[in-house]
Write a structure and sequence with these properties.
The protein has three helices and eight strands; from the N terminus they run βαβαβββαβββ. By secondary structure, the protein is α/β, with parallel strands linked by helices. The longest helix has 11 residues, at 17-27.
Amino acid sequence: MLTAVDHVQLAAPPGSEDRLRAYYRDVLGMTEIPKPPVLAARGGCWFAAGPVQLHLGVEAGFTPARKAHPGLRVTGIEAYARRLEERGAKVVWNDDLPGHRRFYSEDPVGNRLEFLEPHGSGPAAA
């Protein structure tokens, strides 16, 4: 029986770890978590914020995920969007999901990320 999503893995090009750290740690405010040594040898980096984990794995022939993306719930979405913009990240608002405020951004290697916060009452806010 499924109980939760443990993590989401995104791909990244070889040698991009410093750019990923600057974005996921310094822009998004996540904490880098150590990879087990056998996995660390492959490159990439892992990040967490509360129960949310994003793993960035190195992929030869990397192509960024432009449609597929993690949807990350936030609180205080307006302030969070300002935080990203103040740190140089692009924020593109989208009002197509009823019951939510949301925007899209991209990490420094071009992967699409969705940030959303439910508002109002009813099933979408649960």
